[in-house]
Specification:
With about 230 residues, this protein is an alpha/beta fold. It contains nine helices and five strands; from the N terminus they run H-H-E-E-E-H-H-E-H-E-H-H-H-H. It has helices at about 15-20, 35-40, 90-95, 100-110, 125-135, 150-160, 165-175, 185-190, 195-220; strands at about 50-60, 65-80, 85-90, 115-120, 145-150. It has a five-stranded mixed sheet, with helices on both faces. Helix 6 packs across helix 9 (about 195-220), helix 7 crosses helix 9 (about 195-220) and helix 8 (about 185-190) crosses helix 9 (about 195-220). It is globular and about 65 Å long.
Length: about 230
């Protein structure tokens, strides 16, 4: 079976066998060892997910986010082409299963992609998602199954801004940001299961993803995408 995926770790046995049995035209090597040639010759590009999440978590004694002291409110994933998927916690779930359902739906959606791009996600969204998945007994990505790119790191390394926050990056590059401000009273209401609060937080998350997509479009050309796993 001829594969059409950009990641070896997402291929089944028959697809891997095809890579072993066939060779690249440029070097004559088996595709399994010259996977880059396979991608170029078959015109296969990575499927990229632009992820943002909103959550409430505490911090431990060292100031690090503590995923066992809170839960996710929502997530939004864009594909960079104007299509979006999202999920938000239900009021009834706050005092029962909490974020179990939306953590599972987020992971399920991410499995459709080869790479996830985010803002400060390597230090927040991704480890928190992994923590909540393990606590909720939901299978998470193993090493090499999903690649990661953090726009915050790109801005930090390649630009000299007063702040590397998502809103600051967007304002510097485009003159404006879609980022909204969520009042403290909204976050507190969400902790009590207020549905209107969830909707406002979800709207905030959607705006963040749109900023993320635009910022990534500007900054990705300055780096080489690596095979760094989440």
């Amino acid at each position: 079976m001829k594969p059409n995926k950009a990641s070896l770790n997402r291929m089944n046995k028959n697809e891997l066998q095809w890579l072993v049995s066939n060779r690249c035209s440029k070097h004559g090597h088996r595709y399994i060892s010259h996977f880059g040639c396979f991608l170029k010759e078959q015109h296969i590009e990575e499927k990229i997910a632009y992820l943002d999440t909103e959550f409430y978590v505490g911090k431990n004694r060292w100031g690090k986010l503590a995923g066992d002291w809170g839960f996710f409110f929502c997530w939004v994933i864009g594909d960079g082409k104007g299509h979006y998927k999202k999920d938000v916690i239900k009021p009834s779930e706050v005092k029962t299963t909490r974020d179990k359902r939306i953590v599972k739906s987020c992971i399920t959606e991410l499995k459709k992609y080869d790479r996830v791009i985010h803002q400060y996600g390597d230090r927040a969204d991704i480890p928190l998602l992994r923590t909540r998945a393990l606590i909720n007994k939901i299978p998470f990505f193993k090493h090499g199954e999903l690649y990661t790119t953090d726009v915050w790191k790109i801005a930090k390394d390649k630009l000299t801004l007063s702040s590397n926050s998502q809103g600051s990056i967007a304002e510097a590059l485009y003159g404006e940001t879609e980022k909204t401000r969520v009042r403290a009273s909204i976050w507190l209401a969400a902790l009590q299961g207020n549905q209107k609060a969830f909707k406002e937080i979800l709207k905030h998350c959607e705006a963040d993803v749109r900023d993320l997509e635009r910022n990534a479009e500007k900054l990705l050309p300055f780096i080489r995408l690596t095979k760094r796993s989440i």
